[in-house]
Amino acid sequence: MTGSQRHTEPLDVHLIAVRDGTAGTEVLLSRRAGDVYAAGCRHLPSGHLDGSWEHMVTALVRKTREETGVVVDPADVRAAVTVHHRSPAGGARLGVFFEVRRWHGTPQVTERAVCDAMGWFALDELPEPMVAYCRAGLDAYRAGARMGVHFQEPGDPLAYDPAVDRLLLVPDLSDRSALPEDTVRAFAEQAVGRITRWTDVSWARAESRVWRAYGAEGGTWYVKIHQNDRFHQREVDALRGWVPALGAAAPRLVAADAALRAVVLTAVGGRSLHGATYPPEQQRRIFHLIGQLAACIHTSAPPRPGGGALQVEKLGRHLDGARPHLAPGDEQFIRATAERAADLPALEVVPTHGDFQLRNLRWDEAADTLYVIDFERSEEGPAVRDFVRLSDVWYGRPDLLQAVMDGYGRLFTPEEEAQLTVLSVLDAVSGISYGAAHCDPELVERGHRTLARLRAVQGPDPHAAARGAAPDHHAATRGAAR
């Protein structure tokens, strides 16, 4: 033992009675009154065990009846969270918080000497003032934690004050893999304040991680760890550079840490377009907004003269990975298409998203607003770079292509059509190689579709493209619809 005596803290039980209300989940709170601890503050119905003969559930049922007048069946009591608390005066205790969703009777004030009000409050908008100890238990409950420590310091107020919030959540073994590392959590909380809940929203890839973070005082952010320094710097440069020109259509950078390769971003609304289905009329509206958003991206900074021919130096490496998965004739077509890259005219370069596809686009149907996320592949390039992964989506749907072009404000030039073909082939090979190596069947399938589509338009002569006959992506779409 490091101390001179054993701990002999009392044990409290706390009732978290919750119901579905008009403002969402609501919790029952009373207001302390009279000559009691923290008079005037809101608090959960609670109390001590009567003695060694009484266990926790029996005590909760008894205190609930005594303080609120309602009857709870012990079978309806659920363990919520346990908090080890120390008051500013130094006294410590163990609080066990229980959730109850069913009871008999209507809650009302029954001990008027110590309580002068009782009511239902939105769990996401807790009232003030509230006993800091009680607020700690509710914050831990809202965070989904099983255990917390709330050791106040001498001089701390009895009422909850976010400036001296002492709650420390103890990670659950089952949640360990879903939480960011301690250094990342500390970085995020330094930027936005205490975070009460983390939800892992990463794609099924191990290279990068993304969490949705919920603040103790409300607010939602995204915390992202990049898979390498280059992606981190690209995203940070874009968020500090041209992305603010998109306004509310994109997240805002709150904080960045190059050593951790971490960023904290504001949350945007909407639902990911990846895998979502909509009626044709709504699809056309969405693709019109996609065209408008692409135009905003490409005009967020003045264009500059291009830097020469398209870079195809990585083709050999990607072909090595993709070759076992290619169809007969694919490699010949790929090489013939890549050969023409050196002869294509240089296009002006503009800011590009670099991964402009449905999974990085979110649509808020009620607000008719489109949002774009994930800028780690952003760099200057020809504008058509951002249409490579969308061209697979509008293939066979001339109405969607028309909607995109209407929103974008113009059609592609012949020079852009030629570059789009080469970029699409390179992206297909890269996707097949990466997808096969990282067990991502979606990338592999998309690469196969792209190659099959472009080969069907180009015809049986794989060298036609090398002689300047670039496939017309508009014609390809129109032809597939007939």
UniProtKB/TrEMBL annotation:
Pfam families: APH, NUDIX
Superkingdom field: Bacteria
Coiled coil: none
UniProt domain Nudix hydrolase: residue ranges: 8-147
Xref: PROSITE patterns: NUDIX
Biased composition (Low complexity): 460-469
Region spans: Disordered: 460-482
Cross-referenced CDD domains: NUDIX_Hydrolase
Protein name per the record: Phosphotransferase
Source organism per UniProt: Streptomyces cinerochromogenes
